[in-house]
Amino acid sequence: MIYPISFAPLQGFTLAIYREAHAEVFGGVDTYYSPFVRWERGSVRNRDLHDIDPKYNILEHARFVPQILPGNVDEFRSLMMVIVRLGYHEVDMNWGCPFPLLTKRHKGAGLLAVPDEAKRILNALSDYPDIRFSIKMRLGMTSFDEGIALATSLNEAPLYQITVHPRVGIQQYKGEADWDAFARFVDRCRHLLVYNGDIQSVENIEQLTGRFPTIAGVMIGRGLLSRPSLAAEYKTGKRWSEQQLREGVRRMHDIIYSYESSVCQGEVQLLSKMQCFWEYLSPQIDKRIFKRLTKCTKLKNYLEAAKDI
Ligand SMILES: Cc1cc2nc3c(=O)[nH]c(=O)nc-3n(C[C@H](O)[C@H](O)[C@H](O)COP(=O)(O)O)c2cc1C
Questions:
Q1: Residue 120's Cα: distance from chain center in Å?
Q2: Measured in angstroms, how far is the CA atom of residue 131 from the centroid of ligand 1?
Q3: CATH class held by domain 5-236
Q4: Which of 71, 105, 192, 246 is deepest in the core (most CB within 10 A)?
Q5: Cα of 298 to ligand 1 centre, how many Å?
Q6: pLDDT of residue 172
């Protein structure tokens, strides 16, 4: 059986132009999520609104789902006003972000440490009968027991799906995703469940789905940033050659460069935006070219290095 693959939201990386370019050049992904949109000082940042604007999220062979990051039920309702106004019928909620600045305000994984607030949000879901809700969560802020204890409330909530990243918030990205903790949640959860965390290869997907055959899909983040063909390789059963991969990366780069050069203000901004693109791609690029791309300080040198990929 081939399982659906989703591309994890990654703030600063998987923005609208990246999602579009990835879907066009590599494919293999069934669902793309936006990085989280948060409510701050009474509004949503313009650039976040732009990123989830439906007109920039038309993907031919994949679904797009916007993600919100509410820290309490009032923020949830404010963010839902934005989602409804944009005409969406589906939204994902982030209950997993581990960044201390956000968790201390009960956002992301921080919400798992205040179960009463999490339950208030779950109770509010029924006020939006036209919206399909999913949650992407860790299994706790400080202990897996927090996430497991929420399973009953989650089971009662009108959710379409839950994606679980089996780490706790205080771990950030340290240690390994814990498959035994995920197994405890699988046993208790009655919703469709997607697994997320540390999937780097087709073999990893197969090991995972071999152990958890009832899951509804696999979400991959950094594994797809560093090997953008991973989902396509899994779906087709064919490994991309180094040359195919490099050509794909070059095409994807050119699409993103063409977009960024039309919106960035000045060379410095453009260069720093483009240098981010390479951050996870070092396994696919010759070491010297990678260094030239990521360390140069002039756009002219950057473009020369990009030609050599
Ligand atoms: C740089 C970075 C930005 C992220 N941004 C988001 C985000 O906006 N929303 C979210 O739900 N998770 C976010 N995550 C978490 C990822 O979606 C994912 O859960 C995590 O990287 C584990 O999956 P992976 O091992 O396949 O990368 C981010 C992770 C990283 C490293």
A1: 25
A2: 24
A3: alpha beta
A4: 71
A5: 30
A6: 98
| Closest alpha carbon to 72 in 119, 28, 31, 37 | 119
Q: What is the DSSP string of 54-116?
A: GGG---SSSEEEEEE--SSHHHHHHHHHHHHHTT-SEEEEEE----HHHHTTT-GGGGGG-HH
* Average pLDDT of the residues in 9-14: 97
The tokens for 219 are 């979400």
How remote is the CA of residue 13 from the centroid of ligand 1, in Å? Answer: 10
Tell me what pLDDT residue 154 has. 98
The residue extents of the domains of the chain are 5-236, 242-307
Query: pLDDT per residue over 106-146, tens digit each?
Result: 999 999 999 999 999 999 999 999 999 999 999 999 999 99
Instruction: Provide the residue type at 115 as one letter.
Output: P
How far does the centroid of ligand 1 lie from the alpha carbon of residue 36, in Å? 10
Give pTM, 2 decimals.
0.98
Distances (CA, A) of 20 to 38, 193, 295: 22, 26, 27
Atom of ligand 1 nearest to the CA of 200: 26
